[in-house]
Amino acid sequence: MIFRRTMTFPLVYLLRRNSVYFATIAGYALIATPLVASGILYGDVIVTSGIFFILVMGLDLLYGYTGLLSFGHIAFFAIGAYTVAVLAKLLGLSLLGGGLAALLLNLMLALTLGRILLRLSGSYFMLGTLAFGIMVHAVITTWYPVTGGDAGLGDVPQARMGELSPTLSLAIIIWGTTLALFWLAMNLAQSRVGRALRAIRSDEVSAACSCIPVARLKTNIFALSAGYASVSGSLFAAYNGVVHPDSFSLSALLDVLLMLFFGGEGTIWGGLIGVTVLRTLPDLSGPLHAGKILFSGVLFAVIIYLFPRGIAGGIRRIFAHLARRPAAAVLDAALVRAPAIVGDAPVLKAENIGQSFGGLRAVDDVSFSIDHARIKSLIGPNGAGKSTLLNLISGVQTLREGRILFRGEDVTGRRPDAIARLGMQRTFQHERLFTHLSVIENVMVGCEHGSDGSARELFRCALALPRTLREEQRVRAQAAAWLATIGLAERADDPVAVLPHGLRKLVEVARAAAAQPSLLLLDETAAGLNDNEKQSLKAFIRRLRDAGITILLIEHDMEFVMDISDQVLVVNFGRRIAEGSPAEVRQDKAVLAAYLGT
Predict the structure, then answer these.
(1) What is the separation of C-alpha 481 from the centre of its chain, rounded to a whole number of angstroms?
(2) What pLDDT does 283 receive?
(3) pLDDT per residue over 218-246, tens digit each?
(4) CB 548 within 8 A of CB 335
(5) What is the pTM of this model?
(6) Which candidate, 248, 254, 250, 251, places its Cα nearest to that of 232?
(7) Taking Cα atoms as reference points, which of 262, 363, 303, 295 lies closest to residue 572?
(8) Nearest of 185, 202, 220, 120 to residue 451 by alpha carbon
(9) Per CATH, which fold does 42-291 belong to?
(10) Where are the domains of the chain?
(11) What is the mean pLDDT of residues 174-189?
């Protein structure tokens, strides 16, 4: 694939991409410094804000990007704190040694717990993490010989740096750690992993069909967020010199959640605003004494009304127009190149597929095949089982009868992401775009084949290695070229939610085609398009076919189908009733009776 584009040096690109990171630090320093110097804001608030910002960042990576709200992170926070305190008193371990031990323990717990709880969804996941938090709190409250029980543990040794005082030493350590973890979190959030996480939050099924291993990635990000909580807890114990169960109660959990939502979930940097305001609020409302709770409640009501996405969400919306980017590339040569097909076997072969839902026979003993670089249309009345066939082929629904051979390999029973990685992409009858991503980011997910979800990839993206940055620039340019091809270059940075229905359909096709699959499944893609858009789509599909991509198409527009198809397969009541060229199908008596009419 060849583009006319200018590649930015990786370091320059990284600094530009993370401009929000530097703006946040500079703005925070400019506001906090005079407030601390004048005595309006205490230094303790700034230091503890750094500690809790780490905890909130971990929660934001989990909820703000993946949509998983955990009530158990206060337990990882507690384990980090108590491990440092206990190991310091019993073995004399330093903050570094105790913190690393706590981190290892929390990562093992999170990976184990994640594999169990992430099988649950919605409120069940939240209740599972809440139960974990309650259990950990019960242990530290009752395990008196080790944790000190209700009395807590005191005299935790504080770290020192040379001749500096313990307080100043810890302040430097805490904010040095905070800024490093902030940098890693911002890198991760803006990388292919961050896009994959937001894709999962938007639509797990569509994410899986875009090569994203949903379960694996959610487990690893759950463990990473627990690691952030662990580091935060370790620094908390070292700074305070004491740990007590009250610091890890449900009340403390609610404070942390308020920090997240008040600052603005899904931004990372917004957590710093929420944490600092929450840590400052008791001092600001102190003169009100009995009215302190009322003051806090009124303030939150006003802010939530004005900024429902938090303070950071409001700021980001105000300045969103300044971040718009021009198209990154212009198409210069061949846009698509399908993977090489080895041998003469059909790209797809379905053998005796059957599927029932209760007493309904949705698909009944259907067999067919598609040869390389051909367009086969699947037609039939509403309820004939067409979309169910595509769901079975792509792994969205588990096949119970028959088998599916894709590029000569049996893929029956495999997960959607595993099938997608073999070279199969699809669209849906009702488009399933990633609403938490922009138009170009949706297509980028297709270009980069989602994410492999591994800890290695998380590590590589968080460090923002030069190779990773060059790949991201290449993918962005490639995605821009795809958008230019379908006439949406000017809408690249728009949220997909603001696009009309027809254009969203085109974006979904571009996202699937950008993965350069061997087989592309299109489910009623032309529905809702006007005549000009249909003609453009028809030309685009032919171009994909000519580039070597095999296409299975579901469509109700018979003029569209008969004009574009190499072959047509007709189903009715879940059974195949005809198959052949458009001319043959058009004359078939069974098809005329069941669908086309006279």
Answers:
(1) 23
(2) 55
(3) 999 999 999 999 999 999 999 999 999 99
(4) no
(5) 0.91
(6) 248
(7) 363
(8) 220
(9) ABC transporter involved in vitamin B12 uptake, BtuC (1.10.3470)
(10) 42-291
(11) 97
Instruction: Give the integer Cα–Cα distance in Å for 266 and 101.
Output: 30
Question: What are the angstrom distances between the C-alpha of 94 and each of 51, 108, 322?
Answer: 18, 21, 47
What residue has token string 């189908």? Answer: 561
The residue among 135, 150, 153, 133 whose CA lies nearest residue 253 is: 133
DSSP 60: I
* CB distance 192 to 441 below 8 Å: no
CB atoms near residue 323 (< 10 Å): 10
Phi then psi dihedrals of residue 325, to 5 deg: -110, 145
**DSSP conformation letters of 334-392:** ----PPPPPSSS-SEEEEEEEEEETTEEEEEEEEEEE-TT-EEEEE-STTSSHHHHHHH
Q: What is the DSSP string of 148-167?
A: -GGG-B--PPPP--TTS-HH
Q: Would you give the end-to-end CA distance of the chain in angstroms?
A: 47
Question: Looking at residue 339, what is its pLDDT?
Answer: 61
DSSP state of 241: S
**Residues 391, 380: Cα–Cα separation, whole Å:** 16
Residue of 554, 287, 271 lying closest to 394 (CA atoms)? 554
Name the packing angle between helices 192-202 and 439-447 (round to 10°): 110
pLDDT attached to residue 35: 87
CB 432 within 8 A of CB 205: yes
**Residue located via tokens 């998983």:** 68
